[in-house]
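hey so u asked for the seq, here:
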Amino acid sequence: MFSRHFPRSSARARAALAASLLLLTAPVLAGCAASDSLSQQARAGDEKNYIAGDGSVREYAAGNRGKPVSFSSTLFGGTKVDASSFKGKVTVLNFWYAGCAPCRVEAKDLQSLYSQFKSSGAQFYGVNVRDEEPTAAAFERTFGLTYPSFEDRNGTVLLAMTQYVPPQAVPTTLVLDKEGRVSARILGTAEKGTLKSLIQSAQQS
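ran it, structure tokens below
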């Protein structure tokens, strides 16, 4: 597994290295050129385009989940969150942006599942890879989203995840177990029943 400790250099060089690691460790989705990968868009920091997921679902056995994820980033509104705080709770990370059509399709189901599982300790975070706060807030109002999102236009969360389970598409939904390890990944639109089952499985593991 690759280390997150990079040499001191410019932020752009650091991001470029992380993007290169992604290209070495995970194939680009069928139909998408390597130069249009989500990680390289994060490196550029702007002009991101929608990259379609194939709808594939992967669940990882407890013995194959690797290390707890590690990153520190800022939510819209300014609250800083460190992934070390995820320990003890199942956490859902959903990568999205307002102009992504499948993100709009799944939004109400994500909110419904958040409302269903928050009483049992599960927590949801969006990871917005493109929008400024007013655009993200308008999306959240439209679809009634009440869980917070990271402002990730600089790719902090996205690039941190390249050493665990690269998102590779928008939307992508990751489920973390109570130790903060990736237990499941959905590439593309998260089907409500499938995500519900993955959250329940993570809670029981």
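Residues 1-37, 39-51 have pLDDT under 50 and may be disordered. The two ends are 23 Å apart (CA to CA).
lmk if thats what u needed
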